[in-house]
Amino acid sequence: MSIRETCEWLQSLDFPREIRESTWLFPTIETVHVLALVVVVGSISMIDLRLLGFANRERSVTDLTAEALPWTWSAYAVAAIAGLLMFSSKAATYYENLPFRLKMLCMAIAGINMVVFHAVIARKQSDWDFGRPPAHVKLVGGVSLAMWIAIVAAGRWVGFTTV
Amino acid sequence: MISEFCDWLASTPLSQLFQDLQWFVPLVQTVHILSIAVVVFAIGMLAFRQLGLSANRQSLSAMAQYFLPWVWSALAVLLCTGILLTITEPARELLNDAFRVKMVMVAILAVITRVLQLGLKRDPTFWTSGDVRLLAGRSIAVTSLVLIVCIVTAGRWIAYI
């Protein structure tokens, strides 16, 4: 089954049809998505600004991530579930939508960037936990911040191109 | 009367210009949402700290000194982007009940956040010295959390009602 056919199968199921045909379900799920994504973006951007050396430099990255990342991950799970439900309601339309594809691409880049951070860069975190971060740490923070801004922009753009 | 004001505002050259730019509303909304992210996360972190539900080991006062300047800057951006969106589509906002309720809630949130800040400025332990202040501080925290959820909800529903 091609991706397109999978999307058509998905949106033919009962719960996507209910979301599509209801007047209040989609806006409600969308509201949950927005509430969750602002927590994701708010918490990640605090870490990113620290990795860039723009803010909170007197505090350790270890402390900041310990405080913020539990929020990031719980909110991410909620945003992803709500996002999947919205996607399912018009899966084939979203699959064809350019802003939606760009958003998925940016999320993939942000994901790879995060894996690189945790698996490679965070290993020597004690070297730069306080004070000015080195260039490669700034790069990871910058890529993350840029991707999350792009994800929000593309997400908003999706709403204007799939009516 | 508000309806006539909306018609007039929508007919101004500035509003017409914004309306003609197809990318304008999504772009401004994107900046608006990014600023909401700052406000929601910052207010949320402070509120959970006050309620004793935070992993943060800093004092409330130290957290407020970091987060509240971000909140005020983001609120300024929200005001500007909100005005731009209202100029572009006056009737969509000003005649909308969700928008009106949202504005009242934003005003209350700004006031109680300022009260929180003024208390901490007077004394870093202001909201923890004494049972009455502890209760008042926690009431501010709970109210803030309820308000940010309701504000975001009302904001999204402007598009639907």
Notes on the protein architecture:
The complex is a heterodimer of chains A (163) and B (161). Chain A has 163 residues and is mainly α. Chain A is 82% helix and 0% strand. Chain A is built from eight helices and no strands. Chain A has helices at residues 3-12, 14-21, 25-51, 61-89, 91-96, 98-119, 125-128, 135-161. In chain A, α3 (25-51) packs antiparallel against α8. The two termini of chain A are 27 Å apart. The mean pLDDT of chain A is 96. Chain B has 161 residues and is an all-alpha fold. Chain B contains seven helices and no strands. The two termini of chain B are 21 Å apart. Chain A binds chain B through residues 27, 30-31, 34-35, 37-43, 45-46, 55-56, 63, 66-67, 70-71, 149, 152-153, 156-157, 159-160, and chain B through 25-27, 29-30, 33-34, 36-42, 44-45, 54-57, 66, 149, 152-153, 155-157, 159-160.
Give a quick set of tags describing it.
heterodimer; A: 163 residues; mainly alpha; 82% helix; 0% strand; elongated; B: 161 residues; 7 helices
Would you tell me the overall average pLDDT of chain A? Answer: 96
Cα(first) to Cα(last) distance of chain A is 27 Å
Helix and strand element order of chain A: HHHHHHHH
Strand fraction of chain B equals under 5%
Structural class of chain A: mainly alpha
**Which oligomeric form is depicted?**
heterodimer
Parts with pLDDT < 50 across at least 5 consecutive residues of chain A: none
Number of E strands of chain A = 0
Shape of chain B: elongated
What proportion strand of chain A?
A: under 5%
User: Which class best fits the helix and strand makeup of chain B?
Assistant: mainly alpha
Summarize the structure.
The complex is a heterodimer of chains A (163) and B (161). With 163 residues, chain A is an all-alpha fold.
Topology:
The complex is a heterodimer of chains A (163) and B (161).
Chain A: H1 3-12, H2 14-21, H3 25-51, H4 61-89, H5 91-96, H6 98-119, H7 125-128, H8 135-161
Helix pairs in contact in A: 2-4, 3-4, 3-8, 6-8
Chain B: H1 2-11, H2 13-20, H3 24-50, H4 60-88, H5 90-94, H6 97-122, H7 131-157
